[in-house]
Amino acid sequence: MPTLAAVSSKYIIVADDTAFVRDRFKAALESVGHRACAVSDAPGLLARACDREAPIDLLVLDLRLSQSQGVSIVRSEEHTSELQSRFGISYAVFCLK
């Protein structure tokens, strides 16, 4: 099993409308050497993804993002395909509160 030093740094976006959850995820990821960005809604997620030139390695998405935005992103083939192909997201983790 690789040690923490052997794992390369990844760029991770955490999308959650609860500030505490968002901040804790971000802090935990950064504490082990990853670059993390926290956003509070779907427009923020898509805007942050558009700003990136390098690929996004992981998306942690709250399915209960305000106004059902998390579920809408997952159900929308347009958003899912766009995030996967255009922005290079390899994996997505969906979290329920």
Keywords for this structure?
97 residues; alpha/beta; 4-stranded parallel β-sheet; 21% strand
Number of strands: 4
- Fraction of residues in helices? 40-55%
- What structural category do the secondary elements indicate? alpha/beta
Shape label? globular
Distance between the termini: 30 Å
Sheet-strand content, in percent, reads: 15-25%
Oligomer: single chain
Topology as H/E string? EHEHEHHE
Return residue spans where pLDDT drops below 50 for at least 5 consecutive residues: none
The strand line-up of the biggest sheet is 2-1-3-4
How many H/I helices? 4
Average residue-wise pLDDT: 75
Any idea what the radius of gyration is?
13 Å
Biggest sheet, open or closed, and with what strands and sense?
Answer: 4 strands, parallel
Description:
This protein has 97 residues and is an alpha/beta fold. It has helices spanning 19-31, 42-51, 69-75, 77-86; strands at 11-15, 35-39, 58-62, 91-95. Strand 1, helix 1 and strand 2 (35-39) form a beta-alpha-beta unit. The longest helix has 13 residues, at 19-31. The protein is globular. 27% of the residues are buried.
Show the helix and strand layout.
Blueprint: E1 11-15, H1 19-31, E2 35-39, H2 42-51, E3 58-62, H3 69-75, H4 77-86, E4 91-95
Parallel strand pairs: 1-2, 1-3, 3-4
Short note summarizing the structure:
The protein is an alpha/beta fold and 97 residues long. The chain contains four helices and four strands; from the N terminus they run E-H-E-H-E-H-H-E.
